[in-house]
Amino acid sequence: QIKAFLFDLDGVIVDTAIYHYQAWKRLANELGFDISEEFNEGLKGVSRTDSLDLILAHGGLTLSDEKKTELAAQKNDWYLELVSRMSSNDILPGVATFFSQVRQAGLKTALGSVSKNAPLILERIGMTDAFEAIIDGTKISKGKPDPEVFTKGAAELGVSPAECVVFEDAVAGVEAGKRGGMFVVGLGSPDTLAQADLVAPSLESLTVETVLTACS
Ligand code: BG6
Ligand code: MG
Fold first, then answer.
1. What is the pLDDT of residue 205?
2. Is-contact 21 36, C-beta < 8 A?
3. Strands of 69-177, DSSP E
């Protein structure tokens, strides 16, 4: 029986995925190459340091750890600049309705994001109180596709993985949920998120009842 819903943040609750992409693209451009939207799919849900390693490998660059720390900080500064004007208006369509259904159904909720900026974003959009547990990039040692971020969320809520549903827009995030032993709802394209148990374009096109029926 399902007792908890675990939500990714970037690309599920709020469209910060585009800002991560813009900031990484700017960094790649300054280094003399470009990253496509398709390449960016593989960066979604991946930690800041792992993303930088993938980008540098893509551009055929090998840099010192010192330089990499500097570039990661630069990307984050640009990202923070892009998200600084965000407000509750940026919450994705369907999220508010879906969360009121979640409360009605008496389900527990946790955030499972590898972003170290997750608490800041939640404050900006006024959704900190929507989650009983918040697992972010500062609380984990391994990013997605490792299941740690979700297994920690389940543990903090006091539920087992089999009692959880994960909502994810990233290939790495879907894999993390599956490896954690959870039912995974992929939000995006069925081609990209083929590993998910159920795929929908966004939370707007789902109801809690549809999800619970699909799990049973
Ligand atoms: C994930 C994003 O939520 O967080 C990734 O999908 C991002 O694109 C990762 O790299 C880490 O985020 P941050 O904010 O700690 O750099
Ligand atoms: Mg995401």
1. 97
2. no
3. 108-112, 133-135, 164-168
